[in-house]
Amino acid sequence: MSDLPTVLITGASSGLGAIYADRFAKRGHDLILAARDVARLDALADRLRSETGVAVEVIRADLTDGADIGVLETRLREDDRIGVLLNNAGTAIGGFYGSADGPSIESLITLNVTAASRLAIAAAQTWSQRAAGGSIVNISSVVAFIPDSPLGLYSATKAFVQSLSQGLNGAFGDKGVYVQAVMPAATRTEIWERGGIHPDSIPGMMLADDLVDAALVGFDRRELVTLPSLSDADLWDAYETARQALIPSIRNAEPAGRYRT
Ligand SMILES: NC(=O)c1ccc[n+]([C@@H]2O[C@H](COP(=O)([O-])OP(=O)(O)OC[C@H]3O[C@@H](n4cnc5c(N)ncnc54)[C@H](OP(=O)(O)O)[C@@H]3O)[C@@H](O)[C@H]2O)c1
User: Fold this and answer.
1) Would you kindly state where each structural domain of the chain is located, as residue ranges?
2) What pTM does this model have?
3) Which residue has the CA at smallest separation from atom 17 of ligand 1?
4) Could you say which architecture CATH assigns to the domain 6-259?
């Protein structure tokens, strides 16, 4: 058993989650891997145990199911070996506004928003009460900044995840809980084909290994928002400065002059 904090990764059966599992195992962390496809999780767990010697536990969880979310939530509250949560499971299925229906909307929001919120809040509440603190990595997306992207409702869920991350930083950042929002641009994983989009139709896809390695540089630097595809970091600073400048001006007891009749 490792002395380092155990890392709980949702959506570890493929894509970014599986690569994060590889990287944290190589750093010497024990792992808890969650997703629906247990055969893939078991295969990854076997490889990581034999290559790195870390302990790896597999949990089958469908994070559109409230009871399964509750299992991981309870684990985060009760297992004091866990010190890193990677809130990574996500889908773009059901994102198109033209074809979304009740069940697809509910499924998308439960996985991308409700599960991510319940797990992050359980971890932050628990870890802010203990000396060792903890780290939460929330996988958002650059489409959080592009609400009118064709990915539609998916973009809205990722804006939520970014807002959640900044909010958790405000509430728990000074209590030993580090929260990172990772905002990938298009990255070559299964998410595209699962969502019915051929990855070759998207120009300039990042490789998933490069994305995770860059995001981990941001993690090690304790960045609050990590934008691996953004070369000009000044653009993000200008965006944040403009957002901060808006805040004092939107607190006003009187309607603005242009809304008075
Ligand atoms: N790839 C990109 O271009 C890109 C860009 C920006 C953000 N992201 C975000 O990156 C994260 C990881 O996605 P990825 O690109 O690595 O795609 P991926 O390869 O499709 O991985 C998605 C993971 O989520 C799990 N998952 C899906 N539905 C689930 C459910 N109902 N319950 C539990 N787990 C579920 C999948 O496992 P099972 O099927 O085994 O359950 C899989 O492990 C997502 O949050 C995604 O929104 C990706």
Assistant:
1) 6-259
2) 0.97
3) 191
4) 3-Layer(aba) Sandwich (3.40)
Task: State residue 52's pLDDT score.
Answer: 98
Region of residue 128 (phi > 0: left; psi between -120 and 50: alpha; otherwise: beta): alpha
**What is the number of the ligand 1 atom nearest to the C-alpha of 206?**
3
Q: Quote helix, strand, coil % in the chain, to nearest 5.
A: 50, 15, 35
Question: How far is the centre of ligand 1, averaged over its atoms, from the C-alpha of 31 (Å)?
Answer: 18
pLDDT surpasses 90 at 122: yes
Q: Name the nearest CA neighbour of 35 among 22, 21, 46.
A: 21
Q: Where in the sequence numbering do the catalytic residues fall?
A: 154
Q: Please name the helix (run of DSSP H) or strand (run of DSSP E) that holds residue 134, with its range, or none.
A: strand 134-139
pLDDT of residue 18: 98
pLDDT, one tens digit per residue, over 65-89 is 999 999 999 999 999 999 999 999 9
